[in-house]
Amino acid sequence: MEERTINVDLCSTKKEKPKSDQLQFGRVFTDHMFIMDYTDSIGWHDARIVPYQPLTIDPSAMVFHYGQSVFEGLKAYLSPNGEAQLFRPKKNLQRLNRSNDRLCIPPIDEEFGLKAIKKLVAVEEEWIPKAEGTSLYIRPFIISTEPYIGVAPSRSYKFIVILSPVGAYYKEGINPVKIAVENKYVRAVSGGTGEAKTGGNYAASLKAQEMVANSGYAQVMWLDGVERKYIEEVGSMNVFFKINGEVVTPVLNGSILEGVTRNSVIQLLKHWNIPVVERRISMEELAQANKDGLLEEAFGTGTAAVVSPIGQLTWNDEHLFVNNGKTGDVAKRLYDTMTGIQYGKQEDPFGWIEKVKNVCKTT
Ligand code: COI
Question: How far is C-alpha 56 from the chain's CA centre?
């Protein structure tokens, strides 16, 4: 039987909050966190908000050995009238359960998960930063905790939500980033775990990223795992190209993460009657479009990255300079509209915003 109440244990001393105009991404965490446990015999139970603290986990817990873990990323924003609001949180909870399914982790009740997130954000409302471009990043995750080193699905788990006040994801802020196209390593293949949000995908991406980081590349762009030909996604973003007036993004093929921002951007482009197509696109085609002067814009999308213009793509020895290294009009319009809706400064024609209010803070 699903647990319906959330116990709240508030901390007695609060941490000092960082200045909101100096925030980086993901380095500071708030005063409280949400935890809920799972065992095969009881199901999900003991939902609670407690002071932020280290976990005590057995060294043989399965997550340390076989990586059975999933996570999500969403944000809370402060609207001009001081209300905390979330952007399409149900999409994140649905994706969390799709990732759970792929990793053999028991599903959570999505409605209850949303209630838990709202309640935690309500408790930590004063942590939502106010400076332009800042927000409270919400990181729900699930880890397998059974003390057992046989390879099998764990029979116990923890679902945890932590919060971090954040600024821009890239040090470049909203300015165009440089991306290296990765030819040797691959992130995922169709049939693998590429479309699940699981830690192993990110662990597998580090090597390639480290190899180019010192040359000023913010991230790498992955090609398909079979032919190393078709574009998949960039480190922590889905990717879009404007070619000769049409916006193209790689079609979801099982190895690409189905981004909430990706989906929102496609809806916005359609709403504006800007041609947008999801299809396979090869690196060769992109390089040719650039040579022909048809590659007008490139940008990535993600919760952390929002809409990030790409000013340069390096593929082997070829450098594709996009829009003279400047932010394109479509990327700018998307960024302004997405953040306008997220921060409640603009109308929300799609009903994407969920207010945090009406959540009782102490029971
Ligand atoms: C997000 O955009 O929220 C992500 O999960 C990317 C993350 C790996 C920083």
Answer: 27
144 lines ligand 1 (CB under 6 A): no
Instruction: Give the Å distance between the CA of 236 and the centre of ligand 1.
Output: 6
- Domain 7-168 = CATH 3.20.20.150: no
Q: Where in the chain is the domain with CATH 3.30.470.10?
A: 7-168
74 and 342 Cβ atoms separated by less than 8 Å: no
Q: Which two tokens stand for residue 80?
A: 């001009």
- C-alpha torsion 207→210→212→213, nearest 10: 160
42: amino acid identity, one letter: I
Could you tell me the distance, in angstroms and rounded to a whole number, from the CA of residue 302 to the centre of ligand 1?
Answer: 7
Backbone φ/ψ region at 23: left (φ over 0), alpha (ψ -120 to 50), beta: beta
pLDDT tens by residue, 8-31: 999 999 999 999 888 999 999 999
| Spacing, Cα 150 to ligand 1 middle (Å) | 30
Site to substitute for ligand 1 among 164, 303, 338, most atoms within 8 A of C-beta: 303
The CATH code belonging to domain 177-342 is 3.20.10.10
Of the candidate ranges 161-175, 195-209, 300-314, 336-350, the one whose mean pLDDT is the lowest: 161-175
State if pTM tops 0.85.
yes
Q: Whose CA is nearest to atom 8 of ligand 1?
A: 236
Any ligand 1 atom below 6 A from CB of 168:
no
Does the Cβ of 303 fall within 6 Å of ligand 1?
yes
DSSP class of residue 323 equals G
302 Cβ closer than 6 Å to some ligand 1 atom: yes
Domain ranges in the chain with CATH number 3.20.10.10: 177-342
